[in-house]
TrEMBL record:
This is DUF559 domain-containing protein. Gene3D superfamilies: VSR Endonuclease. InterPro entries: AbiEi_N, DUF559. It comes from the Bacteria. Residues 10-50 form the AbiEi antitoxin N-terminal domain. It holds the Pfam family AbiEi_4. Residues 228-296 form the DUF559 domain.
Length: 298
């Protein structure tokens, strides 16, 4: 029997262990009952126990559910979104898991959803936990979100490098039959769709440009000859850079100092620069269009 080995095993799964793991370490059923009576272990699900003294993590309920449901399961939907850092999706009150196969699986306190198959290309490991990939997570969530929220989530995921536009389009196309909202994902990631956006604000700015019949810029691209300077929007002829100051990424004093240094780099590279805030793009699109037109025809 090795309590230290049991504790070591629990630290890799957010403080949880299975009865099978304990048995493999020489801890039999009698000792497990004793450890539960003494408060060393607390049973979370049948065959899954939480180890006292190991710090609780936000993902511990998901870890426990995964251990209970086995290798056919993966964190999905809102639980997967939070593992992947997609904070636009509210954290679910109960762990959300996807289980492959025809066998019906239920677990108290867990939102278990079934899928016929869950191929390896739709599963990754985050924080030591099986989780649906960024692409599969967006596809699964699409049915629960408005079209606008689906598009915003796509932009968030691409910005965070959780998935790529090409791969997301491929999986959305493959999984579109019978799935609500997935056609929106496929449409906005198609090669003929507007450029790669890293935020909802960039997408709205593109709408302002198109509505004003201005030439479209390239979004999120490095300046020629300056690969370390990736700008929000770039026109080459005539040269013009636009930076968009969304509240999410540009609100802190430290970020404003960084933005100032970045503006100097762009100017020194020889590119005129315009900056627009969220309020500008959303509240005064006509003024934004006028200033763009003046800069592009100067």
């Amino acid at each position: 029997m090795s309590m230290s080995a049991l504790l070591s095993a629990a630290t890799t799964t957010h403080g949880c262990v299975t009865t099978a793991q304990a048995n493999a370490l020489g801890i039999g059923e009698g000792k497990l009952r004793q450890l539960r009576r003494e408060g060393v272990l607390e049973t979370v699900h049948r065959g899954v126990h939480r180890v006292a003294g190991i710090p609780h993590t936000a993902h511990q309920p998901v870890a426990a559910a995964l251990l209970a449901l086995g290798d056919r399961a993966a964190a999905s939907h809102g639980s997967a979104a939070h593992l992947l850092g997609l904070e636009r999706v509210p954290r679910p009150l109960r762990p959300q898991l996807l289980v492959s196969g025809s066998h019906r699986s239920e677990l108290p306190g867990v939102d278990v959803r079934r899928t016929r198959t869950l191929p390896a290309k739709d599963v990754c490991v985050v924080e030591g936990l099986r989780c649906t990939t960024g692409a599969r997570t967006i596809i699964d969530l699409a049915a629960t979100l408005s079209a606008e929220d689906v598009i915003a989530l796509v932009d968030d995921a691409i910005c965070a490098r959780v998935t790529s536009r090409t791969w997301l389009h491929a999986r959305a196309t493959a999984l579109s039959v019978g799935r609500s909202g997935v056609r929106t994902v496929a449409r906005v990631t198609h090669t003929d769709a507007p450029g790669v956006f890293w935020s909802w604000l960039e997408r709205r700015f593109d709408q302002v440009v198109r509505a004003a019949a201005l030439p479209p810029p390239v979004f999120n691209t490095p300046l020629p000859g300056h690969p370390h300077i990736v700008v929000d929007a770039l026109w080459l002829d005539p040269p013009l850079v636009v930076e968009l100051d969304g509240l999410r990424f540009h609100g802190s004093p430290a970020q404003r100092r960084k933005d100032s240094a970045r503006a100097n780099e762009i100017a020194l590279a020889g590119y005129p620069l315009l900056r627009f805030t969220w309020q500008d793009v959303v509240g005064e699109p006509q003024r934004v269009a006028r200033e763009l037109r003046a800069a592009l025809h100067a």
